[in-house]
Design goal:
heterodimer; A: about 290 residues; mainly alpha; MetI-like fold; globular; B: about 425 residues; alpha/beta; D-Maltodextrin-Binding Protein, domain 2; 2 domains; seven-stranded mixed beta sheet
Chain lengths: ~290, ~425
């Protein structure tokens, strides 16, 4: 009886899962395995050729350009992950706090997120123009921000934060709205207010959301490509060239798909390791559930 | 209709497209934009109007690395166009990589063309491994534009109002200094922002003037002179004779606006000056000379456009299509006087050596440049928007803005390019 019941549930479950599984296999797992296979060959952009074993990986670990690009990727993540998470939380608190202006604030905070990357980068580029940009006008400067070694990456980071923070705000907002109001009412009866409410009710309830936001943000930041590709083209002299940009150049400018696949595979490993590390830290700190 | 009749009819269908009254459609991809693009469009329209058998459909794509990536991938999978404009400096890469289909002498002869019809230098650049892979269209060297009003105030003109000859690096530097001192405006303008090419072209020219190759036997061979030359150029920017950080449009508009004594650029800016001059909007008189002899000789970087036929993988074109394609190429060659008005030096001798072309102004002022041109050295990674140029464009502009020392910039350039030099040429 029991097995019959289970079988009756299996078929619909399989049917419902099938489209996702098919897409996952077709568009993720198979290409990922193919990429790994490609990384073991000496292939050009369009032609697969000679199996070379781990030769590409041996080159990779000795390639200063790869390490520099990886360093730039980490630097960008450092500049964006925490600010994006914290800012998203602050914005969500503001939207939640002001019942009347809340929806307006929510709209204003979320609006940049709907822009396509080309529009976002154009706006940032206009604002930061050396002689005609509003930022230099306000600061009374003529700085070419994207050509400046020290400022190029921070400017890309600021542009990215402005562009994507809305999504994190929505995540936190959903978390906030899930906190039972009774908790606050009970605490208020006990005389708690302001900071105490946040510290003892809001934050403990939001912590899992915060960790999720951090993990998603870390992955998103590590995957940066479009912003630097358009705004700085990786310059000045490669100081903002990130890992995916290096992979793109290797594959398309230099027609070296085998090596590019090795970069991609190595990068996936780095991203997965960092995500696992973050998860481990979260568990140790008791953040994740 | 019985089965045999049906099969018989089916067997005949492949013959249909070759009927004499059938129009051959030639799809062309071009990387020509701006004034060049307009001129090529006009040539296509004139050709289409001139006869009924062939119709050329031209698509203009953004030039640079994306154009070549697209051409390579499309050709390999058999989805490329019938005809493409390319830079002859990319021939070792494209022909060597199997992207292009060779053009047989008999195919050229069928449309009335022969190797001897083209200037030897361009014709040689159209050959790879002993076969013809392109029909050359033009040559566009690096030249020196000057503003006669500003140069005159700096005392740099002779009694005829032309630029007095400049010879040697010190003489050019002095000329730039005098413009700056006399007019308060920069002596020189050239694109100098990150990811710009002018500095690579100038550096390559000046190395050739010293008889130095960039790469020899798979190694960088310019040595200390490469660094010294880059330092001399960077010196102009550090001394304020030129403005660093300018992208291409900013640099040309600085010159067109009358705000710089000299401009180092390719001849493709000639039409804009001719137009501004005619319309009376330019505001100054200009002159053009070949890149001066600054070291041992007067070598100047140049590249050429050419027509090439993509190999298109396992879908090679029919003989009739090839004939149609080459008929268009022959037409453009014979009508390349219009192309010469774009500033380019035509490759087709009957036009290039005609009295009309020799008298064409301002082209005649810099015609001598054609005798001293150097192309990018041969190598699969060389050429317009090629892998090595892409790397050079990242590092070579940095010393102009004082971001890196010349030694540091070249050191990083070599580190990044090391893999390219070691790698064997890709087969696409």
């Amino acid at each position: 009886m029991r097995t019959l019941h289970r079988r009756r549930e299996t078929l619909p479950a399989m049917l419902l899962l099938a489209p996702f599984l098919a897409a996952f296999l077709l568009f993720f797992l198979v290409p990922a395995l193919q990429t790994f296979w490609l990384s073991l060959t000496d292939s050009s952009l369009t032609r697969t050729s000679a199996f070379v074993g781990l030769a590409n990986y041996v080159t990779l670990v000795q390639d200063p350009s790869f390490w520099a690009a990886l360093g730039n990727t980490f630097y960008f993540s450092l500049l964006t992950v925490l600010p994006l998470t914290v800012l998203g939380l602050v914005m969500a608190l503001l939207v939640d706090r002001f019942t009347r202006a809340g929806p307006w604030l929510q709209g204003a905070f979320f609006l940049p997120f709907v822009l396509p990357i080309s529009v976002m980068t154009l706006i940032a580029d206009w604002m930061l123009q050396p002689s005609s940009g509003v930022v230099n006008y306000l600061l009374g400067m003529q700085r070419a921000w994207f050509a400046d070694v020290h400022w190029a990456m921070p400017m890309v980071a600021i542009g990215t934060i402005w562009w994507t923070v809305g999504f994190n705000m929505l995540m936190f907002l959903a978390g906030l709205r899930n906190i039972p109001r009774e908790l606050y009412e009970a605490a208020a009866l006990d005389g708690a207010r302001g900071w105490a409410l946040f510290r003892h009710i809001t934050w403990p309830q939001l912590r899992p959301v915060a960790w999720t936001a951090l993990v998603l943000q870390l992955i998103a930041s590590l995957k940066i490509f479009g912003q630097t590709y358009i705004m700085t083209t990786g310059g000045p002299y490669n100081t903002t060239r990130v890992t995916l940009h290096y992979m793109y150049e290797t594959a398309f400018t230099q027609s070296d798909a085998g090596y590019a696949a090795a970069i991609a595979t190595a990068f996936v490993i780095v991203v997965v390791l960092l995500s696992l590390l973050q998860g481990a830290i979260a568990r140790r700190l008791g953040g994740a559930k | 209709m019985n089965r045999r009749t049906l099969l018989g009819l089916l067997a005949l269908t492949p013959l249909l497209p070759t009927r004499a009254d059938e129009v051959q459609v030639v799809r062309m991809w071009t990387l020509l934009s701006g004034g060049d693009g307009a001129r090529m469009r006009a040539l296509v329209d004139e050709f289409n109007a001139s006869q009924q058998a062939v119709r050329v459909e031209s698509t203009t794509l953004k030039w640079g690395e994306p154009f070549y990536t697209k051409l390579i991938t499309a050709s390999v999978v058999g989805a490329g166009p019938d005809l493409a404009t390319i830079h002859l400096s990319r021939l070792p890469n494209l022909a060597g990589g199997g992207v292009l289909r060779p053009i047989a002498p008999a195919e050229l002869a069928a449309v009335g063309l022969a190797g001897a019809d083209f200037l030897p230098r361009q014709w040689t650049k159209s050959q790879y491994a002993g076969r013809t892979y392109a029909v050359p269209l033009d040559q566009h060297p690096l030249v020196l534009y000057y503003n006669k009003n500003l140069a005159g105030r700096a005392g740099l003109l002779d009694e005829r109002g032309q630029l007095a000859p400049i010879e040697g690096m010190a003489a050019l530097t002095e000329a730039l200094r005098r413009v700056k001192a006399a007019t308060g405006k920069p002596g020189l303008t050239m694109e100098s922002a990150q990811s710009t090419y002018a500095i690579w072209r100038l550096w390559l020219s000046l190395l050739a003037q010293q008889g130095l190759p960039v790469v020899a036997n798979g190694r960088f061979a310019y040595g200390a002179a490469g660094e010294a030359t880059l330092a001399r150029i960077a010196g102009w920017f550090q001394a304020g004779y030129a403005t660093p950080g300018m992208d291409y449009p900013a640099s040309t508009s600085q010159f067109m606006g009358g705000n710089a004594g000299f401009m180092l650029n390719g001849v493709w800016e000639v039409p804009e000056l001719v137009r501004g001059s005619k319309a009376g909007t330019l505001g100054f008189e200009y002159g053009i000379v070949p890149l001066p002899k600054l070291y041992g000789n007067a070598s100047a970087w140049a590249d050429s456009h050419g027509f090439a036929l993509p190999a298109n993988g396992d879908k090679p074109m029919s003989a009739a299509k090839a004939r149609a394609v080459l008929a268009f190429v022959a037409y453009v060659s014979r009508h390349s006087m219009g192309w010469a008005e774009g500033g380019h030096i035509p490759a087709y001798r009957p036009v290039a050596e005609s009295a009309a072309a020799l008298a064409l102004q301002p082209n005649a002022q810099y015609a001598a440049a054609a005798h001293n041109v150097v192309y990018d050295p041969d190598g699969w990674y060389m050429g317009a928007a090629g892998p090595l140029e892409a790397i050079a464009s990242k590092f070579l502009p940095a010393p102009l803005a004082g971001q890196l020392t010349p030694a540091d910039a070249l050191g990083r350039f070599e580190t990044e390019a090391a893999r390219l030099l070691k790698k064997r040429a890709p087969q696409y």
